[in-house]
Predict the 3D structure of the following.
Amino acid sequence: QVQIVDSGGGLVQPGGSLRLSCVASGRLFSLGPAEWYRQTPGKQRVLVARITTKDDVYYVDSVKGRFTISRDPAANAIYLQINDLRPEDTAVYYCRSAAANLWGQGTQVTVSS
């Protein structure tokens, strides 16, 4: 059964950086776009970044210039580099394969001093 595993979250101070990883057990990220979402308690999951198989990228305005999405097709992996972290970035981050509509289990990012 194909699955996606998210990792890389943690507790960081404001201004810090994290690199989130998302690895699929199959070639999902070669079949369609990959996306990173985030969710805070009581709110809907929100798209923050997307990358297509042609490496076209999209970012929500609030993360432009701080977040970078990338992919490694050979490793069946997607990454989200997050710089200049802010308290409002605190959330559970989820990776998604658009081709399979398959989600990772999520990884918690907490930004606090």
